[in-house]
């Protein structure tokens, strides 16, 4: 590696200048750093260069002529859309024009410090970046921009009226729009296959409703089933948007279904990093704890990738500004419906707000810690009779509630207004909007150049020969009695006790695909430490359906060694050991059929031996007669049959994780008369049990045959008859239970389509990732067994 020591008047090493030029060539539209021109004489050969830095002019206005073509709102089939950025109101934008508007994940004049995180840059550049970030206040200033935030639960309706009164309710056009929709489409097709024509319909309605006094570019569209987020920016600001990333997370049943959950977009505007979240949390008055759990799941599971793939992903809370909107579904508690309506008539919103579940949960710091919400001076936005301003007159007569909310987290944010829009009557919700004046960090070019020069001079004084070193708080970690789907964590503190900053990274061992076993993670797995600084690394063990089978069978142990590598320094070794408690979750059907006692009551050697025994050996005369089906499966199905046959939305609403843990422990350690937890938690436990089986009910060997004969009822039954006896028993038992549920469809709102889609993915699992056609075929296969006795 070329020496990084250079004379004090040279700010960046020759190698790094070449790398930066490569970036400029890769993105010719990106503005060129003026200070790089000083070093061109150090580069051999000729290279193309990008243009001069574009100075920002807030007085700039768009072309008054514009385009007169009608805009066609278009998005790709990907879940995160909008890379073909579109200009609003004035027609289509040509591809070459779009590149000038917004560059997703590219470098602009507003994020120079971030440029140095590219993989091709080394330790010296990360030192520069670290110092630039620490001294950011010396070369940036705060400038205010107006953000329009809106949320609207449209109840599966198509747009029937103009959105102008909602989206153009401000005298001046906002700089940025972030618009969240929920329940865009309530059809089963959208629920199971994430495909809906209503996306285009609502995009068109939004496009026509944006403020007419400005031109807007669509930066990003991201949708998960019926949860959609649209991100627009004024055309003149588009060049200052960068690092655009989107993520989605479903919090429905098994943490996958997207009927509830969130979509999010993160981006950099000038030198400020911003994250916008649109969420739809669990429904029903009594389910505030489930809403709290949804919020926590969203915060932990939404992870944005960074430009440098070696850096850990960013969580929502890692952003300096977080804007959270959506149908949060928190209700009014402890008041009768007539009392609530009386308070609304008197406009006594203060008394009503004291009974608001979200306020109470935030006061208790159960959710949205660090977030703020403006004063609510508008009547509840749910629930109305569709097409009117009349409160719900249905049989359920819902208590009015402020379900639709907008919150924020960060500095230099002032809410200018917060209101609902009663004139829109398409849905049983009213849309809500908020305009926020947000102070954005903007780069001062001259100050930036001066700061950079001072940083590089100081780095030149460092002795390049100094070897980095760290001390570790602990070298050995033991995780005792780890359970299935139980998060266990320990912390490792790394302290830089050397004379120079250092860069650390956990590295792969020889012939291993990753730096750690799949049940282990280290966060962060790499980073930068200034002299004297420390970092706390979370070492987390989590056994899921992918890793449980080999651990339960004894084929793998909770053992690993992490190698912490210092760039230009030595390696440090961290030992991870632990013990895993075998569980019925992650075991095989034939193993569980041999166990008459709870799995954790059996000697570990017996469990391991049975797990490695083939079904043919189990059926030998020397073995004790096996159970027809696993007792754990019988207990869950029997519980649901007796207690939940008429349960509304069974298998469609998630349970509580705390209740799942109680159910898991109960099944693994004892044989009770009744299972703990609510019906939805037991239902989810059943789905997780089937999903975690080491070999699915319909074995991998028969999977392809199932796809080939899915249209023939007779052939499908023939395949099932050829399954191993215990697998055949389980299939027949589960499908018989599902047919019983269908007899109560008037109460539980289940149908063949719903059950076939949910259970086909569990009973007929693919040995590889399923495509959409395979999903449809497995669903068709299972439907034959759900309707055979219904006619």
UniProtKB/TrEMBL annotation:
Residues 45-109 are annotated as: Disordered. One of its GO terms (molecular function) is inositol-1,4,5-trisphosphate 5-phosphatase activity. It is an enzyme of class 3 (hydrolase). The keyword Transferase does not apply. Gene3D superfamilies: Endonuclease/exonuclease/phosphatase (3.60.10.10), Immunoglobulins (2.60.40.10), Rho GTPase activation protein (1.10.555.10). Residues 54-84, 93-103 have a biased composition (Basic and acidic residues). It is found in: Cytoplasmic vesicle, Phagosome membrane; Early endosome membrane. Its main location: membrane. Residues 621-791 form the Rho-GAP domain. It comes from the Eukaryota. Its EC number is 3.1.3.36. GO terms for cellular component: cytosol; early endosome membrane; phagocytic vesicle membrane. GO terms for biological process: phosphatidylinositol dephosphorylation; signal transduction. The keyword Ligase does not apply. PROSITE patterns: RHOGAP. Belongs to the inositol 1,4,5-trisphosphate 5-phosphatase type II family. This is phosphoinositide 5-phosphatase.
